[in-house]
Amino acid sequence: MKMLKALSVVCVTVSAILMMAGCQSSKSEIAKQAVEPSTELEKGTVDTSIVKGQEPAGAKEDVAEAEKTPKIVLTKETNDFGEVGPRSKHVADYEFVNKGNAVLLVNNVQSTCGCSKPVLMKDGARHSVPLKEPVPFELGQSGKVEVTFTAGSTKGAVKKHLYILTNDPVTPRAQLELKANVVTKVSVAPESVDLLLDQDNAGMPELVVQSEDGKEFSIKSITVANKTIDVPFDANEKATKFVLKPKVDIQKLEQFNTGVVQISTDHPQGGTLMVRYNSKPIYEVSNPRYILQNIVPGEPVLRENLIRSNYGKIAEIDSVTSRNGYMEIESQEQEGNHIKLMIKITPPAQGTSERRYISDELTITLKDGHKLVIRCSGWFRMK
Questions:
Q1: Which of 150, 212, 320, 369 is surrounded by the fewest CB atoms within 10 Å?
Q2: Do residues 77 and 178 both lie within one domain?
């Protein structure tokens, strides 16, 4: 009996020990699973970069691609030819390079004047402007714009601009500039005159045309718009200096009180000589045109004006006519030889026409027959 009891105790003890060992083993396995990654994670079926809070694969490459842009850089933006002769031709090169990280497309080259003709150059090939299709320039590749400039016939400083149109987002219109100073070898004096209608021959002085380099020349032509001034000359005569005596048509000068006398010679660097003239009219209005905004149908608008007498005559109004009936003289006041006016402009009722714009012309006839015109343009207020 005693032996049976002892064996029972031993069995119970062994069972208890085995149970405790089993429990410890289960806890260790659970802890091991919590620490070690799963086999699926190890095999790459789950994106570890997302787990770790990083950008998805390829995201950086997409951003870098989006940031690629072309960049045009000019090595020289301005060319100054200095002193040049009239009608002479000159060539300037404007080099550029693509310093971006994407292909630069030159879409066109624009000139603001017919005297400056550009050609696009790439690898020795010439591309006429306007371009039929964009010309590509790879990263680091250079090109140039060749500009042929033809100087004008009149003397003076010249400044012209051209533009290279590209897909550069920062500089889509790269500006080119050229400068020159046209110098002629024949001069005229004076180059401008103020004429007076109440003087004999309008006070027109003699014109002296002479060579600056000592070479003889002939006068080929002299032209004046509206034939306001006649300048006699002998086209067969050669000399280093000519003294011309212009004759002024006073009646035509009253109609066309400003203009230019153009003189052309056969000197190779004579160019076209210009004598500008101006004369004050016998009478003039201080404001020959009114521009009105936001006018209201039927509501008069008042504007001041002044008839000026420039040669000591007293200005006196004989009659007034309005082309469309919107304008009239509200009041007038004599101020010495001048007349101070108040002009009333009454816009018509719109009715059903819903017109947006009106115009009129007021003609003032003075007692000595001179006519003065005041014009008006107006826009109705938007509803």
A1: 369
A2: yes
Average pLDDT, integer, range 29-35: 41
| CATH number of the domain within which 356 lies | 2.60.40.10
Res. 24: pLDDT tops 50: no
Range of the domain at 123: 72-182
For residue 190, say if its preceding peptide bond is cis, omega within 30 degrees of 0: yes
Q: Can you tell me the distance from the alpha carbon of 34 to that of 185, in angstroms, rounded to the nearest whole number? A: 100
Average pLDDT over residues 89-98: 97
Q: Are residues 78 and 178 in the same domain?
A: yes
SS percent in the chain: helix, strand, coil, step 5: 15, 45, 35
- Read off the pTM: 0.70
pLDDT computed for residue 15 by the predictor: 44
269 and 192 within one domain? yes
How far apart are the C-alpha atoms of 326 and 300, rounded to whole Å?
A: 9
Split into its structural domains, the chain has a count of: 3
Residues 209 and 308 both lie in one domain: no
Structure tokens at 103: 């292909």
Side-chain half-sphere exposure of 88, counting CA atoms within 13 A: 17
For residues 217-229, give the mean pLDDT.
Answer: 96
d(CA 263, CA 242): 12
Confidence check: pLDDT of 102 > 80: yes
From 182, 214, 240, the end of a domain falls on: 182
Give per-residue burial for 363-373: e unless 16+ CB within 10 Å, then b.
Answer: ebebeeebebe
Specify whether 320 is located in the same domain as 332: yes
Tell me how far apart the alpha carbons of residues 317 and 364 are, in angstroms, rounded to a whole number.
Answer: 7
Structural domain includes residue 38: no
Residue 381: band (very low, low, confident or very high) from pLDDT cuts 50, 70, 90? confident
Is 269 in contact with 85 (CB distance < 8 Å)?
Answer: yes
